[in-house]
UniProtKB/TrEMBL annotation:
<feature type="signal peptide">
    <location>
        <begin position="1"/>
        <end position="17"/>
    </location>
</feature>
<dbReference type="InterPro" id="IPR001480">
    <property type="entry name" value="Bulb-type_lectin_dom"/>
</dbReference>
<keyword id="KW-0732">Signal</keyword>
<keyword id="KW-1015">Disulfide bond</keyword>
<protein>
    <recommendedName>
        <fullName>Bulb-type lectin domain-containing protein</fullName>
    </recommendedName>
</protein>
<keyword id="KW-0325">Glycoprotein</keyword>
<feature type="domain" description="Bulb-type lectin">
    <location>
        <begin position="18"/>
        <end position="124"/>
    </location>
</feature>
<dbReference type="InterPro" id="IPR036426">
    <property type="entry name" value="Bulb-type_lectin_dom_sf"/>
</dbReference>
<dbReference type="Pfam" id="PF01453">
    <property type="entry name" value="B_lectin"/>
</dbReference>
Amino acid sequence: MVLFLCLLLFFTTTTLALNTIPPGQSIKDGETLVSAGGSFELGFFSPRNSKSRYVGIWYKKVSTGTVVWVANRETPVSDASGVLSINHNGILSIMNRTKGIVWSSNTSRNAVEETIAQLLDSGN
């Protein structure tokens, strides 16, 4: 019975965190978010023949990894030290090794409730 409850807790926690980033949390290079239906994936990637790292959204079920959106197209991270996070004001940002912001959503609003970043099955 205890083993069942431990497994249930593990899978519940993993499932809840699968497609969202709550305020104050982050994903590191090598970690990804997957939309609830498994259609899209968000994470860091490098184009072919490049060491530069970008945050993008790609089709999860397509073997070629077709990227459909890139956040930091003009300002890549130079290595695998990147971190994507959302702050309590709802601003998404990508930071490099020195914690310098290389990209941000540059939007803020006075939210009544905490904002989360969520990857939907529409790719948004």
